[in-house]
Amino acid sequence: MTKIHAETPQRNRLAYGGVLVREDGCIVLRRPSGDFDGYVWTFAKGEQEPDESPEETARREVLEETGVKAEITGDIPGWFASGLSTTHFYLMRALRETGKWQSETQAVEWVPIDEAHEWIGKTTNARGRERDLAVLEVAKATLEQR
């Protein structure tokens, strides 16, 4: 199982991302172009740019990688480690879908949250798959507490 850190980890590159949730219980998953690093379906995430807050990074990465302009509606507790980075995620809701994303994304799909584990399970990168499944479970638990 992937390691979930309660506090900001001191090693590994830090990244920020979002789990987009729709009122009908669907979430957004993105397919990286060429299934980069063994990821078949994953969440939007990326590294911080200079003078950018973690929240700004998460919103920018979601827009760039999914084509969805979003707002943060909550926090997903913890930090989630993969082979390339350790990421903090936010719950988000879509404000506007542009239908355009950067070339690092091949496809974007709204998936029922209860089926997302099957989609994420197609990822061949074991550590990344475990990280995304952990994010999904903590996101679901956080949503249920609302």
Report on the structure:
The strands form 2 sheets. Strands 1, 2, 4, 5, 6 and 7 form a 6-stranded mixed β-sheet that branches. Strands 3-8 form a two-stranded antiparallel ribbon. It starts with a strand and ends with a helix. Helix content is 25%, strand content 36%. It contains 3 helices and 8 strands, in the order ββββαββββαα. With 146 residues, the protein is of the alpha+beta class. The protein has one domain: Nucleoside Triphosphate Pyrophosphohydrolase (Alpha-Beta Complex). A hairpin with a 3-residue loop joins β6 (79-81) and β7. The longest helix is centred in the last third of the chain and has 19 residues, at 126-144.
Number of structural units classed as domains: 1
Segments where pLDDT lies below 50 for 5+ residues?
A: none
Task: Provide the helix percentage.
Answer: 25-40%
Rg for CA atoms: 14 Å
CATH class: Alpha Beta
Produce the secondary structure layout:
Blueprint: E1 4-5, E2 13-20, E3 26-32, E4 44-47, H1 54-66, E5 68-75, E6 79-81, E7 85-97, E8 105-112, H2 116-120, H3 126-144
Parallel strand pairs: 2-7
Antiparallel strand pairs: 1-6, 2-4, 3-8, 5-7, 6-7
Offer a quick outline of the entry.
Helices cover 25% and strands 36% of the residues.
Features:
single chain; 146 residues; alpha+beta; Nucleoside Triphosphate Pyrophosphohydrolase; six-stranded mixed β-sheet; two-stranded antiparallel ribbon; 3 helices; 25% helix; 36% strand; globular
